[in-house]
Amino acid sequence: MPDATPTAALGQEVDARLSRLDLSFNAHGFDAFGVSRASLAAGFRVTGWLYRHYFSVSCTGIEHVPTHGRVILVGNHSGGYAIDAGMVIAACFFELEPPRLAHGMADRFINRVPFLSELASRTGQITGLPQHARQLLEDDRILLVFPEGTRGTSKLFWNRYSLGQFGTGFLRMALSTNSPIVPFAFLGGGEAVPTIANLTLLGKLFGVPYVPLTPYLLPLPLPVHTRLRFGPPLRFSGTGDENQSAIQEQVDVVKASIAGLIAEGLEERKGNAST
Amino acid sequence: MRVLLTGISGKLAQIVAKELLARGHRVTGIDRRPWPECPAGIQLIQTDIRKPDAEEAFRQERPEAVIHMATVSPLTTRRDERYRINLGGTQKMFEYCERHGVAQALFVGRHTYYGAVPDAPLYRGEDEPPMALESFPELADLVAADLFAASNLWRFPERTTAVLRLVYTLGPTLHGTLAAFLKGPRVPMILGFDPLFQFMHEDDAALSIILALERKLRGVFNVAGPQALPLSELIRVTGRAPTRIAEVLHPLLLGRFGLPRLSAGAVAHIKYPIVISDKSFRHATGFSPRNAEYETLAAFTAATPARRAEGAGAAPISIATPEPRD
Description:
Chain A is α/β, with parallel strands linked by helices and 275 residues long. Chain A has helices spanning 6-19, 37-54, 83-94, 116-122, 130-138, 150-153, 169-177, 189-192, 200-206, 244-274; strands at 58-60, 71-75, 102-104, 142-145, 181-187, 197-199, 211-213, 227-230.
């Protein structure tokens, strides 16, 4: 990208990629889920800059994300709020050819918060309900799931590479919709927003679960180098109606694969740091 | 077919009645309100559905099918009266159907049945429960009428009963809840919220009712039109100006400065979407709306009279509650 006008070049790239996005927009740029082409254009200008420059994401394994058809991306959460989600969505848009829109399964509180509600629903980040997951997968879209939920984003700095308890709903959904699961690890979220405590009372004031407290007080992210690592797709067979212990076993396979990707990423980072 | 249409003087019911007549059905209508331009082929009985004259119409006409569109909204009617008309009237209508051997009954309800809440899914199916009645009690009588109508499916399985839940209608009559909300030059929005709205052309709504009748539909069906659009887009395309107001300021500003008044519960209907899935209805009837979303908005906009003085449109209206159809 030419350094002279990086923002203009990014804008052009975003527009070019948007025109190749396989969503059925109506004549005025809205799709059936309320995704707006104009909002995506604005949103990807910001996340694209964050992806390339602020968090300078190194992405590996993007070839594991299918270029068409339904898929569930499952990964680890960290770092106060969903920077990881934004960067995975950016990766699917900027690294995949043709670009795709990943739909995050947004936490329920998001729809209650002014502006956040509007932003999320115009960019396809709709509430994480089973009905939505099924509709999106049956429409052959990319679903982005963090099975740790807010337990994941509320991790404190020293726990940033741990994996919390995984919900099992995503696996039942994968089975019943016959969707592959692509595991991924995102490294650096915990360094970007080094949370030392979560302020739940302050959060209540803003209608969010908590506000992360950092050593520099503000919950703003630091410009750290981050890594995104996708693993090979996992396919499970079943109906989605298996008993909980059988499902849990398969969830553990996904979790182990994400833990493996985190370990690989940390290893790689160590290697890079020494060179 | 001999069809009896309750609430026939309502704007949507008039379109249904005329179309039924054109298709060769014999149409009788009941309404408290007059319908001065009622076509010659339609017999209008001006009475209250709960009065003996209404039952007399069932006795004499022996309708094979009844379409029930006689429900009212908080816009026009006080609460006690609303319960009497919406729930009492619906109950009477089904009683008459039972006593006079009506083979088919069609209840025309609304998608606002489901309620506007932040964590409801988009494309709600017929199996989704009604929500948010505690915060919007004005809807309770219509929800009760809807559920009562649906109970006829198991109470009288020999009769062909259908409950339709239609999205907002828009069109040249400028009539209906959404039309009333979009009436003024300035339309309020809640700052930071822009929910999807589902609407259909009133001609398509009428057509869907007739299809349900002619295909002898049985069950509960959502009826939606073309693709849903964000409220801001509706406002932009119809040439109105959105006025984004922080939610806390709403009680102070609404009903003033050319903005419509909204009851507290109705505010949720411009914050959160009610989007329904009409998959079953399309599958059962082959229905497909003839007017796309922008055509529907254009038909509405074209019929809007030249702008009156600023400040027009400050009439008290209540979104998410139906147009008066009694």
